[in-house]
Design a protein that fits this description.
- The protein has about 120 residues and is mainly α.
- Helix content is about 60%, strand content about 0%.
- α1 packs across α6.
Length: about 120
């Protein structure tokens, strides 16, 4: 059951993080994204509080991509991961609110239906 929740978290936070991409140079691997976002799991699942470790992860991920292709790849990775699990609108809302709560401004809407091809 905890494993199922962890996977749902990855999907939901992934939806959040695909939008967070905006500044550095190296492409990031999907497994790195999942590992990076693990401190946000319980918050996105609605069973925990937002922690500084989660915000640090979000800021770090935001700083880990700088080019449009890198941001689009991150988006695709996260959407692919999210599509493998079910999640609620509450989980999506919690995930969507993470960037703002962590001081990261995104010019995109965090939503599973976002078209990764238009992410800049």
């Amino acid at each position: 059951m905890a494993s199922s929740r962890a996977l749902k978290f990855v999907c939901l936070v992934g939806c959040v993080m695909f939008m967070i991409a905006s500044t550095t140079e190296a492409a990031i691997q999907c497994n790195q994204v999942v590992n990076t976002l693990s401190p946000c799991m319980y918050y996105v699942l609605g069973t925990g509080v937002l922690t500084q470790q989660c915000c640090n992860a979000i800021v770090g991920l935001n700083n880990s991509v700088s080019t449009t292709p890198d941001r689009q790849d991150l988006c695709r990775c996260l959407k692919n991961t999210a599509s493998q699990f079910s999640y609620s609108s509450r989980n999506v809302a919690l995930a969507a609110g993470l960037p703002g709560k962590c001081g990261v401004n995104l010019p995109y809407k965090i939503d599973p239906s976002t078209d990764c091809n238009i992410v800049k």
